[in-house]
Each structure stands twice: as C-alpha cells, then as structure tokens.
Write a structure and sequence with these properties.
The chain has about 290 residues and is an alpha/beta fold. It has one domain: Alpha/Beta hydrolase fold, catalytic domain (Rossmann fold). The chain has 8 helices and 8 strands, in the order αβββαβαβαβααβαβα. The chain has helices spanning about 1-20, 80-90, 110-125, 140-155, 190-200, 205, 235-250, 270-290, and strands at about 35-40, 45-50, 60-65, 95-100, 130-140, 165-170, 225-230, 255-260. Strands 1-2-4-3-5-6-7-8 form an 8-stranded mixed beta sheet, sandwiched between helices. Helix 2 links the parallel strand 3 and strand 4 (about 95-100). Helix 1 packs across helix 5 (about 190-200), helix 2 (about 80-90) crosses helix 8 (about 270-290) and helix 3 crosses helix 4 (about 140-155). About 50% of the residues are buried.
C-alpha cells in the first residue's frame, strides 16, 4: 500500500504540471515583471520562493502564500494569477512558497519549512527591501492548513506572529479522511484524502498533531487575526466554520465569509463569484498590512 500510494502521488504531480496553465487567465491582467526566484534557508534545506513585487514601491509589506494540492502537488505557479492580482490590487509583495511535498517528504517537513520561511522574512526581509514587520500568511485548501499551522508554531516558538492569516477553504483537520458528504460528487473526495494520509501523513500520530490539524489544537488563543473563507457545499466547510468559531471564542479577531452555491474550488467556474472572492481577500489584506 505504501509504495502504491507513493507512486500514485507522483502520477498526480505529473498531471498537475500538465494543467498548470489552466487558471492563468483568471484576472491575471497585470503587466508585472516575472517574479524573482529566491532560495530561503530552513531547517530542512533551502526552499525556493517566487517573489512578486509591486512596481515603484519601496519596502512593501509582505504576503506569504502557500499553494494547495493535498501535500502532494508541487506547482506554485498554479497560483501565479492570484499572486499578481494581490500585488496589483494591494501594493503588497507576494512570496509564493515552493515547499516540499510527498512522497519524497513527509510530515512535518512542509509545515516546518512554512514556519521557517516566514521567520526568515521577518528577520531578513529588510535586506531585500521588504517590510517583514508587516507580514500576512495565507493559502487555499492545504495552503490554508499551512498558514494556520504557521501561526500556531509562531506563538509556541515565540517567533513573530503574522498580522493576518488568510484561510481559504482550509483543510484544518487531517486526522480522518472521512468528511461530511455535503453534496454528492464533492470536489474533495475520500480518495485524495486517503492518498495524503498514506503519503505525507504516513504515521497516524502525525495526523492529530495540532500543527497538522489546527482544529484539534487545545489552545487557539493569541493567534493572528483571521479571514476565513468557506464554501457552501465544500466537504471541508465544517472544519473551516468550526475553526472560525473557536478563534472568535478565544478572542481572536475573525472575519468569516461563506461563499454560497459553490464547492471547494471557489476560484473556478463562475468568474463573477471568483472576482468577489478575490476582492474580499484583497480587501482584508490591504486593511491589515498595506
């Protein structure tokens, strides 16, 4: 089973690379230069980051983005359109993190790399004309998991806390591959969740670690303000809704938005709806760090 799961994960990655341009035309209409490629040191080696800068802005604030993909798919350029949109609309610099994924890497590698990239930017961003003191983190799906984990790790390690966590349709409880069947043929099915378990979260203990499953954390006090976006028919909606409620109960500033009449892929299909989500996220980011 282990070897089969790892082989399947590699096939998923190959398929993802072939469709990496599928979303590239969605509101990518900026004339921004291509991003710089950085190599940031972490406890698990160097991590490549694509850095998008707003033209003519000195020392801009920073949004650190973690792409989705069930900890299996490695292609941050899938979110190139999203990075460009945020730069154009908010004037922030976007650091799109190419963290390590399964099957070659297991938990907690990606999670620790995510934390270490953020910590490095808060310490060294000014050396490259970025304002690491005004920094937000975020991502969609598993990227939201990593962003939430970064905030928990930062609090516990005493490293700088981001000014905002943007959690889009986040995957916040990886302890089980069984999710509510919100609608038949949900876009997030048990197959991809089982594959993530079998390849990235290979050890059962890891799935209940609070840094892997932020919803299971005993303590969510003193975390970054949060913008949480969930989708009405998403199989992951319940955990996003529950995390928003837990944060609010713990005194964290939370803005929770439910996107109606759609499943997990909130930026696909209806362009008007996608634009609404993008404007919402950009507005939250601009308010907190720009």
């Amino acid at each position: 089973m282990g070897l089969f799961s790892d082989a399947t994960a590699l096939l998923v990655q190959a398929r993802t690379r072939r469709v990496a341009r599928a979303s590239a035309d969605l509101f990518a209409g900026t004339d921004l230069d291509d991003p710089d490629s950085w190599r940031v040191a972490t406890r698990h080696g160097f991590v490549r980051c694509d850095v998008y800068r707003p033209p003519g802005v000195g020392r801009p604030p920073v949004y650190v983005h973690f792409h989705g993909g069930a900890f299996l798919m490695r292609n941050p350029r899938l979110d190139d359109f999203f990075a460009r949109f945020l730069v154009a609309e908010t004037g922030v610099a976007v650091v799109n993190v190419d963290y390590d994924v399964a099957p070659r890497h297991r938990y907690p590698i990606a999670h620790q790399q995510a934390h270490d990239v953020v910590r490095w930017l808060t310490q060294h961003g000014a050396e490259s004309d970025l304002d690491g003191s005004r920094l937000a983190v975020g991502g969609f799906s598993t990227g939201g998991n990593l962003a939430a984990s970064v905030c928990l790790q930062a609090r516990d390690a005493g490293t700088p806390m981001p000014a905002l966590q943007l959690l889009g349709v986040p995957f916040l409880d990886v302890s089980s591959s069984i999710k509510p069947a919100v609608v038949e043929n949900s876009q997030i099915g048990p197959g991809i969740l089982r594959l993530a378990h079998a390849s990235y979260f290979k050890d059962e203990w890891s799935r209940r670690d609070p840094y892997a499953s932020p919803l299971l954390s005993d303590d969510v006090h003193h975390l970054a303000p949060a913008c949480i976006v969930t989708a009405e028919y998403d199989a992951l909606r319940a955990e996003g809704d529950a995390y928003a409620a837990r944060l609010a109960e713990s005194g964290v500033d939370v803005r929770h938005h439910v996107v109606r009449d759609c499943d997990h892929h909130v930026l696909e299909g209806d362009r008007q709806r996608a634009r609404h989500v993008l404007d919402l996220v950009a507005g939250e980011l601009a308010e907190k760090v720009a």
